[in-house]
Amino acid sequence: MGSGGKPAVGGGAGSGASTSSGAGGSAGSSALGGGGGAAQAGFAGASVLGGAAGNGATSGASSGGSPASAGSPATAGSAGSTGSGGTAAVGGSAGAAGTGGSGTGVCSPPAPGSTGKNPLFSDQYTADPAPFVDGCTFYIHCGHDQGSTGFDLREWFVLKSTDMVTWTKKVAMKLDTFSWANANAWAGQVVKKGSKYYWYVPVSEKNSGMAIGVAVADSPEGPFTDALGHALIDDASEMAAFNYTDAGQTVYTIDPTVFVDDDGQAYLHYGGFGRMVQMKLKPDMISIDGKMTEVTPQGLFEAPFLSKRNGIYYEIYAAGSNPATIDYATSSSPLGPWTRKGRVLDALPAAAGQDAPTNHAGVAELAGQWYIVYHLSNGPNNGGTYKREVAIDKLTFNADGTIQKVTPSSGLKF
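RE: above sequence
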């Protein structure tokens, strides 16, 4: 929000103008002496992705003073410049101009003619991607495959791009963030609630089975810390929730997906081997609200990913068994029931002589274009079933809300 100028002797200062929420700033008030004119409210830009591109405040000079110049519009993800103050006139000094808004503004689409590549990286192995758009940056949080004959993951990466062509990669969190876990930094997802970022991940709980932990940070790039100091969901809590008498009765506690709806209510789904559990989360994002229920979309094998478009909830998931396809179901509620609608990706090939490949996908929208992220098991640099590599392609919706099947490409083209 733009800040107002300080009152001058004999005259009034103009208040700051624009905000980052899509509303104009308040007018400046005059001080004793009556010389200073009121600052005009800044003009907020159209709200896009929760922000606004605001202009700086304008005039605040007393009689005879020249108006303050407007600050320049805020660009995507940065603040508008501060307008200069008006000149002093008889009876008082000019009010200072407010600063520009800090809204995200309208995200620019990728440059026409630009091209990317698939997989995004082949110097290290990346797996189980979950996309997340914050402002005008496209993030992919994923695991780091480090094994050769089995799944060995001990840390997570964050991949990042602002143009969908050039990507950076860095370690965003390690397994030892959770002191109560001892293995399996598997497929998780980051969401934002308020000013915090929450990362829900499945890990192996010491002296128990797979469990879901929650880490929190002030940035989608971290650093992340354990939000609870213990698992959010594990065998013991599942047994209590469903009145099971044996841990073997529980749903396989992997692949959490979390979605924050327009009203701020958050939902968590997870599961594997043909079973999915869903629930609400409390506003603190680290406790369950009400009952956990088992509601499984038709054909689901593992890797659910929950999203929403035009009032329709979409569950994207790995279907069948490995080598899995990527299918999807829809609902009018984030808690189902789910209606299977079709296939997004066919089963992808494995490297020669290796185990059947997995797949894990998610979808997100940036600058009016939807994308699907997934991983390959036959990529370059000796990629394979346990050395997977993240890829991304465009996702297209039909007029009726159904999704067109995606053919994996060698890279995005704009």
